[in-house]
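Question: what's this shape?

___
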Amino acid sequence: MYMQGIADRIRVELQENLNDAQDAQDKGKEAVKTSVEYSIREGKTEETIVNFAHSEAIDLVVISTHGSGGLSRWNISSVTQKVINLVYLPVLVVRAYCQPATSGARVHYGRILLPVDSSRRAEISLAAGIALAGGEIHSGFLSEGNDRSIRRPALLKSQSQTTLVLTAVIKPPEIPIPEPYPIEIEQLSSQLMDVSRVAVTSYLNKMKVRLPVECESRVLENTNVSSAIQELADQEEDIDLVVLCAHGYRAVRLAVWK
């Protein structure tokens, strides 16, 4: 009854006929086309969600940070964490707290934060960011070649002015000796940061020119990449969404160690 009630509420918002939709649910998917289906499974929550997503060929998993266990000191619950780690599918995580009031109008993302680390793995998230910013993306958008050249799509419908905030974090070199460092080490470290800053800035600028949506770029310097991204998202209050890939260039090194 609970699941049927939720399905009916969503169908009303989608302006579907409730009677026809219920008949479709009772008689099978072929009875009438409906955008809302529901399923009840038994078993361990996280494992059942993962198995269901793969058995039903799900394209996107949308999950809340917390559920019946309530809010805790952790940003996400253990169930959500396990689903993210095991599902190996695109996941949209929605905060279970501080939910903004929404109207009946179409949801619009004004600014999307998109962290990249100059690796092909991280660039996978570009397609999702562009699709959300532009509303529709042509299949011609590809990342290919050694220079990771990005072809501009022939068609792109832009129904809103959404900006992608491309962000890269530069980490200072790790020096395996105690401070204070010798002057030669300090100078080499400073030179390396200067060269890295120029190279990363150039990389982001080239990407901004090639992407078919409005873009900005940020080059951050921090010893902790995740902290730098979190601080930027907190400082820029107009960031509506963070889009990032599950792995970047570090995944190559992890695979080697395994």
Observations:
- Residues 137-159, 252-258 have pLDDT under 50 and may be disordered.
- Residues 183-210 form the longest helix (28 residues).
